[in-house]
Amino acid sequence: MRTGVYESAVLINAALDDQQIDSILSRIKDFITNNGGQIREVDNWGRKRLAYPVEKSKIGYYAIYRFDGPSDIVAKLERTYSLDEQILRFVTLKLDNDALEQLEKNKTLSSTIKDEIIPDAVEIKTPVVEEETNNEDNG
Q1: Three-state secondary-structure class, residue 98
Q2: What is the mean pLDDT of residues 77-87?
Q3: Could you give all domains of the chain from N- to C-terminal order, each with its CATH number?
Q4: CB 8 within 8 A of CB 89
Q5: Is 94:78 a contact under the CB 8 Å cutoff?
Q6: Least packed by Cβ within 10 Å: which of 16, 42, 74, 117?
């Protein structure tokens, strides 16, 4: 059976409490691993404002799963997504070599920028401004 690298983005109803969202996220992770997949990375973006309302929700919880798996896992995974009422939207893509290289470049670039900026950060001190008092007599 052929395997590939996939990226699955999920939009979850943000009206749920954190415990319910964590439960959905762990169910997705377990589903992938139980069906022959191996998680590479889980990127939780958290709650974000949506560009337009989705099923009357203005805020959604975003999570992105990158995983290796057999080719038939996508159909099973998306079927599971569609049966869960709390998953508002989803998309799963097969990543080619160019996409994987770009992801690695982005990780390297992000860590390089972080290493360059954070150590060189200078503490910004706000100048102390003394209050001026008006001692003039008006009279």
Answers
A1: helix
A2: 94
A3: 3-117 (3.30.70.60)
A4: no
A5: no
A6: 117
